[in-house]
């Protein structure tokens, strides 16, 4: 499950952009806009070395380097409020879409 959020510039509020199911992290690269920031909340199936399976709720803040400075500031300012409201503790930031891979997420989760 992936929920993609964006900031509505006119209303100055965070809204759901897309709800996605049955896609991989790598497929998410093709869905996210390459020049606009987004927040992604996902429940990720993580298989541990000892065989346990967990589903950590992860928050990814994607902010492309070449997006407008105004957008970057707006998203950065709203990020903490969204994290607190949704009680998201596993928080990661990424600047380049091509870095958003399963390997990257597993490394961040410490697997």
Automatic annotation (TrEMBL):
UniProt entry keywords in alphabetical sequence: Cytoplasm, Nucleus
Primary localisation category: cytoplasm
MF terms (GO), sorted A to Z: actin binding; Arp2/3 complex binding
BP GO terms, sorted: actin filament debranching; negative regulation of Arp2/3 complex-mediated actin nucleation
Cellular localisation: Cytoplasm; Nucleus
UniProt xrefs under InterPro entries: ADF-H, ADF-H/Gelsolin-like_dom_sf, GMF
PROSITE patterns named among the record's database cross-references: ADF_H
Entry GO CC: cortical actin cytoskeleton; nucleus
TM spans (from-to): none
Domain ADF-H: 1-110
SMART domains: ADF
Protein family membership: Belongs to the actin-binding proteins ADF family. GMF subfamily.
Listed name of the protein: Glia maturation factor beta-like
Gene name in the database record: LOC114331822
